Amino acid sequence: MSGIKISDEVVDYYNNHFKQKKKVMYFLCALNPGGTEIVLKDDADKREEVGAYQDKTPEESKKNFDTMKDKLKTDDPCFIVFDFWFKKGERVENKMGVISWISDECPVKKRMVYGSVKDALTRKLEGTKSIQANDKGDLEFDSVVTVFK
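That's the ADF-H domain-containing protein sequence above. Prediction below.
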């Protein structure tokens, strides 16, 4: 890793609010302003509302995914931790995944830094797989969920 650490806050939030209690369907994390660690990106007060979900269904998962995707900016890379719900045969299942949002329009230095941290983040967030998205065309729900099935 590049000397950039994954904050305890990110790991704790993943384990306690996301993985176990399933309070939100997704959350975002990014480099802190000093560039020394990956931290939660959303406002703590609003985080329970952002990506909150009632129904654990593929339809609700797609709706939250599309809402999240609309918020992404091409010059602002981040990591998206998402709880994908999908149908497998007649059953509804879920898998947790990390999407590295690193747009091709992002400055080269940012792309290199985020690229160097993504594997470490995935290892810290046990039970996740990861993919990288370089433009919003890479973020079509049906295509992305297929990777995580």
